[in-house]
Amino acid sequence: MNIIDTSSGTSSIDKSCGSIKNIPLFRTKGIQYQIDIHKFENIIFQSTSSAAFFIEYESLKNKNVFSMGKSTKDYLSKQGVKSVCPSIPGSTELKKLLSKNKKGGNYLIVKGENGLNEILNYLNSSNEYVEEINCYKRFKLESYENVRNEFYDADAIIFPSTYAFKIFFEEIYSTKVKAKLFGISKRIIDYISSYDLDSDFIDYFSKDITESIKDSI
């Protein structure tokens, strides 16, 4: 079975899943930012890339750190930073987690340029003081010609972001694609549905992800 994971390298499924091939559809690049992190008690990382391009890990000591999902939590853990994340990745579940863990203090959101504003809007509507920094950009690849056939031959394609699906639809999708599509959150599934395509939810961090995909095809 040919399964493709379209995530960027920082958040892709563990390579021990031998039947899953990682083919990123975009690249990321760090950008400079300025922030006085000492005035914030709560730090929120919206993606694995936001954690990867953040450079002030030492300043996170004694902070309440939140992450969007398990891959971001695992990345931060490797940097010596403890964080909490929702069991299901995504803004909806993170908002629920934040509402249950309010300990006062200001919030800082670490994200990518043109990233989601759902958490920012939620905290603003809750009358919390919140700022955000962009620490990376996402770029489409120069060409997708050399990967199209791999998608045409795939049995399943996993989308950990709406941006990856958008690129897939614009640059790769055609009637030659026979694969079943999977999203790792309701937001991604709803986004795919807006293109009149069907997809199923997949637990991105399940130890049996390959078997789960096989069972659903």
UniProtKB/TrEMBL annotation:
Domain Tetrapyrrole biosynthesis uroporphyrinogen III synthase: 35-200
GO MF annotations in UniProt: uroporphyrinogen-III synthase activity
Domain of life assignment: Bacteria
Example GO BP: tetrapyrrole biosynthetic process
Protein name, entry field: Tetrapyrrole biosynthesis uroporphyrinogen III synthase domain-containing protein
